[in-house]
Amino acid sequence: DRGGRHGRALEEAGFSVHWCDGLPHPEAAGVPAELVQWLKAEIDKVSPDLVAGCSSGGAYIVALWQAGLWRGPTLLLNAHPSCAALPAGAPVVLAHGSNDEFFKTTRGRLEDLVATGGPNRCLLYYTANSGRLRSGQLS
Q1: How many of the other CB atoms lie within 10 Å of CB of 65?
Q2: HSE, side-chain direction, 13 A CA sphere, residue 101
Q3: Three-class secondary structure of residue 15 per DSSP
Q4: Residues 60-100 pLDDT 10s
Q5: Which residue, 53, 49, 60, 54, is CA-closest to 24?
Q6: 96-100: long-range pairs with CB below 8 Å, 24+
Q7: Exposure of 99 by Cβ count < 10 A (0-12 exposed, 13-18 middle, 19+ buried)?
Q8: What angle do CA 85, 86, 88 make, to 5 degrees?
Q9: Is 71 helix (H, G, I), strand (E, B) or coil?
């Protein structure tokens, strides 16, 4: 869905966005190695300043990190449960809200996660109450 409201916000802010559409939901299909290679080819083709993953899309970023295929600037919107550590030396911003209904976690776990990254390379943006969406869903 092109990043939902998060994706629309990036586009509306004027960022040039390249979408990697059609990826299967990682909770249903896992993250097949051939899709990780395809994502790496997309990254090489576009040469982005930043790779972003939102919610379930974070599983694909974790797979890129685990394969050693991406160490560039990364934005994670809501940490995927498969994210157990950040790659050393990679600049990572992790934004997560306490009301996330899909991947509930504690601020302490997120702080521990950010601490696994390199010194002065990672930032946690945590919001204790980001409110309700128009749909009534918490964010």
Answers
A1: 18
A2: 7
A3: coil
A4: 999 999 999 999 999 998 888 899 999 988 999 999 888 77
A5: 60
A6: 96/124, 96/125, 96/126, 96/127, 97/126, 97/127, 97/128, 97/129, 97/130, 97/138, 97/139, 98/126, 98/127, 98/128, 98/129, 98/130, 99/129, 99/130, 99/131, 99/138, 99/139, 100/55, 100/138, 100/139
A7: middle
A8: 120
A9: coil
Number of residues that this document lists for the chain: 139
DSSP summary character for residue 133: -
How large a percentage of the chain has pLDDT more than 90?
46
Structure token digits, residue 137: 């869903």
- From the number of C-beta atoms within 10 Å of its C-beta (0-12, 13-18, 19+), residue 18 rates as exposed
Instruction: Output the pLDDT for position 43.
Output: 96
Q: Please name the amino acid found at residue 72.
A: G
Beta-carbon contacts of 120 under 8 Å, excluding residues fewer than 6 positions away, are none
Count of CB atoms within 10 A of residue 124's CB? 18
Checking DSSP bridges between strand 74-77 and strand 122-127, what pairing results, if any? unpaired
